[in-house]
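STRUCTURE:
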């Protein structure tokens, strides 16, 4: 299978490292990144010679995986377009609940598999990624959960490559569950500068998570998605099981002086609250507080 990944950060590198030996794999990059990555990248201490292709070197892919941040998606769409034709399957591993609609507008709903990655604990710098969690687990499915041939083919590839995965029974519910996790844990971990080890040993952190999660529940219900108390407890158990010194992507972005996905997490909850006339004071507050913290660093 010819796979092209756009986004050579913690997610893209972890997935690419798994798939490299089991597919025709390359990263889509611009000219500047191709030159910068010319000596390869380091994954868990190992020098890896990934292949990098610019849009001018495009070939048509069977599967394009988007592994960028939300604020980079528009540029990623432009760079990925030459690699995509009518038979190309698209998979987004972006956080949040909005990327698929953007990709559908750009390329057509029929090309999309809905997906996200979870259980990924890592630390990433410009050329080096250290992963503490065996590369994370990809959850994916068709939008309406049909067990299609393309779902089966990608599952077979992941199986052969040792990429952990789950074919979701209800992918829209699962994506909202991950959105709740990102909104609660990424945002609060960045505000408090807490890695996974600190989170797992801090009951007051989890109390704060539960308060924010209730607001996500309310806007999800208005969007037709039922997030239950069991979903909240599953979310808490998933994150507190990561007892290492990995950091959420938002905390890493904050500490590195990069733009965060704040407006796609707590900001999205605030926007949906306004849309449905639902009060979201905690999401509003943590969104503003994170921006204030970013400006203080």
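SEQUENCE:
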């Amino acid at each position: 299978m010819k796979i092209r990944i756009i986004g050579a950060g913690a997610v893209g590198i972890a997935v690419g490292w798994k798939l490299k030996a089991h597919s025709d794999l390359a990263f889509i990059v611009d000219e500047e990144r191709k030159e910068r990555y010319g000596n390869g990248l380091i994954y868990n201490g190992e020098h890896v010679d990934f292949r990098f292709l610019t849009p001018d070197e495009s070939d048509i892919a069977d599967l394009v995986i988007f592994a960028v941040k939300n604020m980079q998606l528009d540029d990623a769409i432009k760079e990925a377009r030459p690699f995509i034709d009518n038979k190309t399957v698209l998979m987004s591993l972006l956080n949040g609940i909005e990327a698929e609609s953007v990709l559908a507008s750009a390329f057509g709903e029929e090309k999309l598999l809905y997906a996200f990655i979870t259980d990924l604990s890592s630390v990433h710098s410009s050329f080096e990624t250290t992963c503490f969690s065996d590369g994370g687990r990809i959850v994916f499915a068709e939008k309406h959960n049909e067990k299609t041939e393309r779902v089966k083919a990608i599952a077979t590839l992941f199986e052969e490559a040792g990429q952990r995965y789950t074919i979701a029974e209800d992918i829209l519910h699962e994506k909202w569950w991950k959105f709740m996790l990102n909104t609660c844990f990424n945002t609060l971990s960045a505000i408090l500068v807490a890695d996974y080890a600190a989170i797992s040993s801090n009951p007051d952190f989890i109390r704060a998570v539960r308060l924010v999660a209730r607001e996500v529940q309310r806007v999800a219900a208005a969007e037709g998605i039922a997030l239950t108390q069991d979903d909240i407890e599953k979310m808490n158990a998933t994150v507190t099981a990561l007892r290492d010194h990995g950091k959420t992507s938002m905390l890493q972005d904050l500490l590195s002086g990069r733009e965060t996905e704040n407006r796609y997490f707590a900001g999205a909850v605030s926007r949906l609250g306004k849309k449905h006339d639902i009060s979201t004071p905690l999401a509003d507050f943590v969104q503003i507080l994170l921006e204030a913290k970013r400006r203080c660093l």
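REMARK: DSSP finds twelve helices and twelve strands in the chain.
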